[in-house]
Amino acid sequence: MTTNEKIAALRAAAKAAGADGVLIMTSDPHCSEYLPGYYNALPWFSGFIGENSTLVVTQTGSALWCDGRFYVQADKQLAGSEIECMHAGSAGVPTVAEYLGSHFADGQTLLLDGSCVPATIAKEYIDALAKKGASLKSQDVASPIWDATGERPALPDTPCELLTPAQTGATAADRIAMVRAELQKAGATALAVTGLDCVGWLLNLRARDLPCTPLAVAYALVTMDACTLFIAPGRLSDADTATLAESGVALRGYEEIIDAVHALPADEVFLVDEKATNYALYEALTAHKTVAGADPIFALKGIKNETELKNIRECHIRDGVAVVRFQMDLEKALAEGKQLTEIDIDTMLQKRRAEMPGYFEDSFSTIAAYGTNAAMMHYHAEGDVNSVIEPRGFLLVDNGGQYDCGTTDITRTYPVGPLTDNERRYYTWVLQSHIDMARAVFLDYCTGFALDTFARGPVWAHKVNYRCGTGHGVGFISGVHEGPQSLRPNNPVIFKPGMTITDEPGIYETDEVGIRIENELECIDLGENQYGHWLGFAPLTLVPISTEPVLVDELSRDQINWLNDYHAHVYEMLSPRLNEDEKVWLKEKCAAIGR
After folding, report:
1. Which of these, 132, 183, 319, 541, could form a disulfide with 188 (CB 3.0-4.6 Å)?
2. Any idea what DSSP says for residue 317?
C-alpha cells in the first residue's frame, strides 16, 4: 500500500464506524518516547519516521505535525503524499487542537485509540471539539488495517532480568518505600506506575522490549500495603520472581491493570499524572478518588544516588575509550583515501563499542551525518539515503551506548577536510555555547528554563538560534532521554546535585551545515556562602573536542581555560586504559590551546 492508500483506508474505516476523522500519535500505552514496533503506527501510515508527531485524517484532508528537529526530514518524507506537513511552533501554523476546531463541525466525531494517547492531550482535544459541538470517541480503527497486511510487529516478549543493588544502590523494597513516602506527602494512597522507565527504576527491572532502551513493557501498581507488577507471564526467571517477592512484589498479567484498578476499594486515593497516563487507564483511575500530581518516580529517579554515579563515571571511561579508538580508525581510513559512507561510520563505531566490557547495545540509532545532512538534527542514514564522506567540511556523529554500568550520549563534529569561514565561525560559536553551559555556576533555585540561556548567549549574540532544547536528562541503564530535568526554555524543574544532563547546543543551517557538540554533565554541589547554595556541573563524557576548526581569538580566557582543563581531565582518565600509540594520539588531541 502507498501512503495515500493507507490514508484512504483510515478515512474509510472512520466512515464505517460512523465517525468523521482519525487521529494517530507517536505514543503507546506507557507514553514512551521510543515505541515498541507493535505500537508505532504513525510511521507505517504516514511514511514519516521522526518522533513526537501527530497525524490527523479527516474526510477531506490529512495533516502531520512535527517539531523543529524534524522540519526538513518531514518535508522530504511526506513529499508526494497527500499529507500536509505542519511545522509545529512556526508562525501561522495551527496547533493540532486548533486544526480540530476548524475541521470538525457540530455532530461530527473524531476517533483515537485512548490507550495510546496521554490523558492530558485527549482532554485538550475533547475541549477543542466540544467548542464546535463535535466529540471524541476512543476507538482503534488503525490496528485492524495494519494487522490485515501482516506487516505489524508482534508485541515484545524479550527475557527480563533484575539489576542488582551493586548496580543501582537500592532494592525494590527500598524504592517502594520511597514512593509510599511521597504518596503520603501528596495525600494519596495509590499509584499506577505507567512509564516503562519508572517501572524499571522502581523494581530494578530491565529487558529489551524497546529499540535501544533496555526496558520491559509492564505496569506497576503501588498501594500502602501491596505492590503488583503487571507483565506477560513467563518473562521473569523463578529466581527473579523470588527476589521481587522478597521485596513484597506480586505478579499479574500485563492486560489486567485496569481490572485491578477497578477492584480496589472506592476510598483508595490515586495520585494521577495526566501527562504520563493513557486516556483509557485515566478513565479507570478517575472512577476513584484522585489527587492530581506528577508521578513521584520521575523526580526520584532524576537524582542519581552515589552507587549509580560511581557506575556512570566508569561507564563514561569505557565509552570514551571506544570513541577515541573510533576516531583514530576514522582518521586512518580518511588518510588512506578509503571511501566511507555514513553507514560505514555507524558500523565502525559499533565495532569499537562492542569491544568494551559491559556494552550490550546502542542507546539510540547513531546519527552519522556528513555535510548538509547534519542540518537535519535527527537525520539517519538508511538504504539509499547514505552519503559518502568527502574530504572537506564536517562529519557530525551523535551516538551513545548501553552498558551494565550506565547509559551514554555524545556528539562530536569532526573536520574531515578544508573548512569554509562560515563553518569555522559556526563551530566556534557552538563551542562557546557548550562551554558556557558546562562552566555555569548557579544558585540552587535555578530551573532548566533559567539555565538554558547560559548556552544560547553566544549564538544569540549573532542572531542565531537552535529549534530544540540545550540538553536532556539521561537514564541509568534506561532511556537516553529521561527527565524530569532538561535544559529547555519551558522546563520548570529545579536542578539538584546528582542530576545528569546533556549539554548539546548546535547550529543547523539548511542546505549548508549542521554542528553539534555534546557532553553529559553531572550537577554538583559547590557549597554555600552568604548569597546562598551554589551548584555547577562536572563533565561525565571523556572524549576530546576537535580544536582544529576553532577561531581561538573569539574565545574568552575563561573559555580557553575550561577547554584546556577539560582536555587534561580527559587524558588523565582515559590514558591508563590505552596502549602507547593511543596515548600519543590522545595527548595530541588534548593539547592545550591559547592565543
Report:
1. 183
2. H
pTM: 0.90
* 507, three cell numbers: 547550529
* % residues pLDDT > 70 (the chain): 100
Name which of 523, 422, 429, 425 is nearest 471 in CA terms: 523
CB 507 within 8 A of CB 429: yes
Q: What per-residue confidence (pLDDT) applies to 478?
A: 97
CA 540, chain centre distance (Å): 18
Is residue 528 within 8 Å of 534, Cβ to Cβ? yes
**Residues with Cβ < 8 Å from 91, sequence gap 6 or more?**
none
Question: How sure is the predictor about 465, in pLDDT bands with cuts at 50, 70 and 90?
Answer: very high
Beta-carbon contacts of 93 under 8 Å, excluding residues fewer than 6 positions away, are: 86, 87
By C-alpha distance, which of 138, 110, 109, 121 is closest to 26? 121
Cell 540561556 found at: 453
**pLDDT class of 26 with cuts at 50, 70, 90:** very high
Contact yes or no for 183/271 (Cβ under 8 A): yes
Assess whether the previous peptide bond of 484 is cis (omega < 30° from 0): yes
As a whole number of angstroms, the distance between CA 202 and CA 297 comes to 8
Q: Is the pLDDT of residue 378 over 80?
A: no
**Residues contacting 539, CB < 8 A, separation 6+:** 438, 519, 520, 521, 522, 566, 569
Strand, helix or coil for residue 97: helix
Greatest pairwise CA separation for the chain in angstroms: 75
Collapsed DSSP state (helix, strand, coil) of residue 220: strand
For residues 73 and 23, give the distance between their C-alpha atoms in angstroms, rounded to a whole number. 21
Closest to 411 measured CA to CA, from 516, 498, 280, 300: 516
Distance CA 113, CA 78 (A): 23
